[in-house]
Amino acid sequence: MDFFNVMSVDEVKDILVKNFKNIKIETEKVSILDSYEKVLSKDIISQINVPEFNRSTVDGYAIKSKDSHGCSDFMPSFLDVLGEVRMGEAVNIDINNGQCIYVPTGGMIPKSSDCVIMIEHVEKLDENTIAIHKPISTGENVVYKGDDIKENEKVLSKGTKITSQDIGVLAALGVNEVEIYKPIKFTIISSGDEIIDLDEKLEFGKIRDINGYALYSLIKNLGGSIVKRTIVKDKYDLLRDEVLNGINSSDIVLISGGSSVGTKDYTYDVINSFDGQGVLVHGISLKPGKPTIIGECQNKPVIGLPGHPVSAIIVFKIFIEYLVNEILDININKYTVSAIIDKNLHSSPGKRTYQMVSLEEVDNKYYARPMFGKSSMITLLSKSCGYVIIDENCEGLYKEQEVKVHLL
Amino acid sequence: MDFFNVMSVDEVKDILVKNFKNIKIETEKVSILDSYEKVLSKDIISQINVPEFNRSTVDGYAIKSKDSHGCSDFMPSFLDVLGEVRMGEAVNIDINNGQCIYVPTGGMIPKSSDCVIMIEHVEKLDENTIAIHKPISTGENVVYKGDDIKENEKVLSKGTKITSQDIGVLAALGVNEVEIYKPIKFTIISSGDEIIDLDEKLEFGKIRDINGYALYSLIKNLGGSIVKRTIVKDKYDLLRDEVLNGINSSDIVLISGGSSVGTKDYTYDVINSFDGQGVLVHGISLKPGKPTIIGECQNKPVIGLPGHPVSAIIVFKIFIEYLVNEILDININKYTVSAIIDKNLHSSPGKRTYQMVSLEEVDNKYYARPMFGKSSMITLLSKSCGYVIIDENCEGLYKEQEVKVHLL
After folding, report:
1. Is the link from the previous residue into B51 a cis peptide, with omega within 30 of 0?
2. Nearest to A221 among B36, B333, B338 (CB)
3. Could you report the predicted ipTM of this complex, rounded to two decimals?
């Protein structure tokens, strides 16, 4: 075991991209109703203009704007009403100078009209005549053909994680189905003689499989699927069998647990026992999360996460989420929350530190309160709402300093 | 129709709470693996201590800390090694002064030991003797019984929207199933002669049911279920029939569309045609979203959303999300992103304005760029990442002013 050559967070990210970015993920077509938070595998190009016709945005009269120019309360313009446009129907008449036609909100305006005057601003003199008292300008209360979306416009890009608004856009285009990436397949192996599942009796000295369940949920949240979640005892052969199953059935294999020296050795040796480059990363200058192992077995990433729950979850968030975003080319912005840190914080020299914090709002400002606790404590995470990153070269943070909180 | 008595956003929220907070939502038990983002309907009280025993957080030797006091490189302490604790097994021996026992990470430490010295800091002299060169203090490298979670502690509260970390906590407790609220049931009615579904042919003058699809996705995202999504023509009887179906089968009925005067009248009249208080809110001093109607029919909320997609989605986010959070007592914090607005912005006096913005990061600072466009344009939303709220009493925002961006 050689724990001296630890790598930085950024070096590890580079290794992940270099070795695994090109993992092939299958695609499938789904109804847009099932596409929420799925990732588009193809650009969406509009085949149509939205709207396909010039629409009124108000209830009112479609006119030629120049018929309103110069009019006022003292000198109104009088216009002949040709009739009414019905919702959802094409207009088959046009207007000339001095003419207008009633259009409901969303209705089509006649070809020669360039604006709509709101019904509230019109004086109806009789069935066939209105008076208008103020000028309006070209384009007022009109959405022109293609104003929202133009034909041949790229509307959504490959790698978009689909939002409710995007589903609205797809509906506007009349797109029923989209091509998305199938879930990335994971195997989760929790290793350790002390780990028991929820349906087993808790004996003294044993501990529940916290990581297996938390990772399951993190993977689902990330859009992945879990082929198998299993617990293995600290035996080389048992671990190797499960890793082999994982490589054969999944895109990514996660081994969680194994914080004790014995298990760490097994994980290391198992990864090196397959065809491929074997162990690529063994120890990261990261707190928490140092004892992380990353290997390549038969072109698949096999990742040994630390056993402590906080470390395992943080390592997942830093590296697995990053890798998934890279594989699927996800263009997503994760925004941070600005806050004032309410305690001095020491960093660990040479390590990138992820300090858990809770957030409190006082007088319209957020305050970040560092949460302390050992990384074996799952409640340290459930009581925090995010973390602050303290860089390798930073000596620490000072009370009252402004920090960026990454939400969990 | 009386559009004069418009209410403020806060007044409308009060009306929603007063009339609909006590809607009864059924509960059910689900596996914790299916509980992600579901809402707990009962507090979770721990039946056990986590951990249930004093555990080592490192590979090392469990000792009595006072045996290390005063030792140094020049005057090491020598300790007898009694043996080894096996992972997942109870310790059946104890240590006396001058004795120690090897414990792997996560292993149980003997009763009389109060700290663990890391293997890296120990000199192994022979199979039965180690030397230690620096003092360590009580509690070092140990997690005590109950340190993470104490027996009878309230671990998660009713109204918690379950996170991956919470699932980790539940696993730690050995909790297999939790009681959660069943999805709140919605009916979505899109009304308008111009509205067609995705499988219909787009004729000139028609428009796709953008709102129906966007609302479907927003409801799913909020944890609700959609009993029916339907499109009705602008006819009083047809609309009333669908609202009746909705009231009978759902908890909340949404009518979307109906921006034209005729449809607005129908929605108003239909709501007033049922047993109950009828229309409670007719017009909100809100931009976009003014033409919103809220009524009570047979104790159920029936809500007429504006027809323009941006307005409908914003009204959903402001009022329906709020109502759902109130009904389920959800304790959730939505954090805002601080940004600098990069343009002057006028507000609409007397209205609360929701201004859509995109966010850009430059030199470690976020800049909010106002997105302009008519509220009938769905791309206005899909190109934005959030909104800034301009208060009723605020005259507007100045360029370079710091603002809070609410993410979509």
Report:
1. yes
2. B36
3. 0.93
